[in-house]
Amino acid sequence: MRKALLFILLTLFAASAYAADVTLEELKSQISALQEQVNTMSKSVDKNEVHRIKDKVDMGIELRTKMDSISYDDVRALPGFANDMMGLWMRGYMINDSGAATAWDQYNMQGGNTPDGFNDAWVATYGNEFMAFMQNLVTQPDIQAMMQTPEMQTWFGTNMAAIGAAGTAAGFDMTSMQGQYMAGLMYFMYEMMSGTTVTAQQAQMMKTMFKHIEPRKYSTNNDSIFTNKLRIRMNSTVNENLSFTGRLVMYKTWSDATDVRWMDGTYKSMYMDGNAGAVPTDDKLHVERAYFVYKNDMGPIPYHFSFGRRPSNYGPGEELRNNATLGGSPLSHIIQWQFDGASLQFDFENVAEFLPGSFIKFCYGKGYESGWGSSNAMSANNGLIATMPVDDVEFFGTIVKFYDDDTYKFWYNYAKGFGVTDGFTGSVVMPFAIVGHDYNLDKEYDAFEFAPNYFGSSSRMEATTEMGDMEWHSFLAQGKTLGFEWFASYSTSKTDPKNISQNAMYQFMDMDKMLGSMSAKNGHSYWLGISTPELPFTGGKLGFEYNHGSKYWVAMTGAEDDIVGSKLAVRGDVFEVYYHQPIVGDRLFATIGYQLFDYEYSGSGSYLGAPVKVSEVNGLNAMMPVTDKVEKIYASFTYRY
User: Fold this and answer.
1) Backbone phi and psi for residue 13, each to the nearest 5 degrees, phi listed first
2) Does the predicted TM-score (pTM) go above 0.90?
3) Is 79 helix (H, G, I), strand (E, B) or coil?
């Protein structure tokens, strides 16, 4: 701009110089005067441009630096013999069916110098533990019943000679039924684990065996994990009828720069549209919110509609512990999941003065797009697909604020998901993969193929099946009494199953049904919180929260930004106490807090698989870690302007 003005003035000056005779000194003086005029004009223009930009776009910054210290207590996982057996098997080092000695199979269980088909190091480390497990296994009624099925009796008849030889070599009493069962199970395992593809019959036996494995317990700590969370807020107003709101977010772990993590059985280990920017990854900016709002009146009733990326997390209920009015739409007890969609709201306080602040809002969101970049986009295999067709997942909701006089507020939120699938598009690092083979296209897998993830490669996830519908109801009361701010929320969830997942891993791990059943399941949760007035001397605020979730409780709150995972999705109890200390008013404040997660049932936050009481978890449930209790101490500084 400055160069352009200078060029124009110099051009005009040059033209006038030709019209009259001037001396060199006069020219220098005039050029100097022109330069001063250009500088003055440039400053004026710059100020006007900045003023116009600020009139159009208002921006704000929030930066939170946080430290979490986390202790996981009594985590359930596979014991060493089962964990190492799975790892060696999938890598081809567990079973030797060649008959010849290998680098890892040169001896037999009795100490002889001939190979017995099993990994020597594994036998030396876990042989006694494994034999004790097998002796207990053959006494179990479900194992004995499986041994008596026609399919297993046929298998026994076909392999009797090999079973007898294996039993004799292992020193079993082949004259007893228990000895025969022991020998049969041992040979069945040998045959089953000779390759990484197992039949449906073998897979069923493997699952039944794993159900009788007693998980080990262990504790682990992350003494300190630091994160930075940056939010850039943008607001633009065209006039009283039309405006725009946006929010960009970066959520980064110190010294980390990757989107994907190892799968730990929870949503926070998966990178998806619904939780992008809510789980710490790298330094990319994510669009957390971006939507326009058009306002007008319909007679005495104001209304507005909106399209874009929705403000669908950090809604009512989250204000106290975050020390902010965060402005999300759905009640945060049931929905904290990022959506793209639309809304339409009608305000009623003009026609119902006894209900100040009242409104009703209708919301729509897209949870999964099946026709873009997925195997369902063009109907895989030229339209002859071996899995059920998957359509889009759509969510509809209604939010009602019955009353809001700035002191007391009463809310209700109803939400329903139609055609909820067995997964969302995203990426994750899986320790191993299971591929199903459906030879006769009857949608039941005839064989399962296991493949280890040698190099920690990330893989794409997507849905295979429409599982059914889900719905939620949530009620929230908020208030301020004697300077204390408080809230109380009660919510319910319900599943409506229609199909079984075609995901091979879910089928193998008994997670192929909504909450483990083809019948509807109801869950509930309650959530309470209170914060003190500003305390004497410090001016800080002390707060306490408690929430409880039942066995079948399911919440769509995977975009809660807690590193442990969504506390509002817990099937069990969560206790939290925190303290906010202002440093520079509300522009810079410090927070310290403590949380105790006490899980009563497994699978918190997931609608796949039956919830299992943590104290009754078995080896099949513990193929992914199952946490009993988590304690967390956190501290943060938040800059907000």
Assistant:
1) -65, -45
2) no
3) coil
